[in-house]
Amino acid sequence: MIRVAFASDDQAQVNLHFGGGERFVVYDIQPGSAELHGIGEFVPARMKGVNAERRPGEEALPEPEEDPAHPPEDKVAVKIAFLDGCAAVYAASIGVSATKRLMEAGIQPIIVDKGHDILDLLNEVSLALVHGGLGWVTRAVQRRNGDAPGKPKGATIHRLITSVEELD
């Protein structure tokens, strides 16, 4: 079993940027099934500073030096903490800094087209658990230690394909 997160506001499609994402849907995936582990909701990220209200096309003003007594909010740290135990996170986009921090935390960042169906991605991971083909899945399986936290009551369970013959 591996745990995977999806940046999604509708629990059906990957449609959010990682850093600005307000919701992450997390599944425990094993060959042939995926079980909803949980949903994390976050306060919407808002731009701060002198350019927060800048309109497209307007010239950006230089930002003042950061005040060490009031550092900017770290919207990524809380998300990475929530994703602890996940092997990967799928998002419509992920910034360079967030990508580096996810990798340091042992979480594989994966960018897919906005609107990519989560069920299709769950099936892809299920197939990779059985037949390989996704390097990050192979690495995640090799690293896992077998400890899995308890599942919430009434969790959603999907039956997933384990071979292409099941598509007929």
Entry keywords:
168 residues, alpha/beta, Nucleotidyltransferase, domain 5, two-stranded antiparallel sheet, 4 helices, globular, DiNase_FeMo-co_biosyn_sf, Dinitrogenase iron-molybdenum cofactor biosynthesis domain-containing protein
What does this structure look like?
The protein has 168 residues and is an alpha/beta fold. The chain has a single domain (2-43, 73-147, 154-167), classed as 2-Layer Sandwich (Nucleotidyltransferase, domain 5), CATH 3.30.420. It is 24% helix and 23% strand. The chain is built from 4 helices and 8 strands. The chain has a 6-stranded mixed β-sheet with strand order 6-5-1-3-4-8. A two-stranded antiparallel sheet has the order 2-7. The radius of gyration is 18 Å and the shape is globular. The model is unreliable at 145-153 (pLDDT under 50).
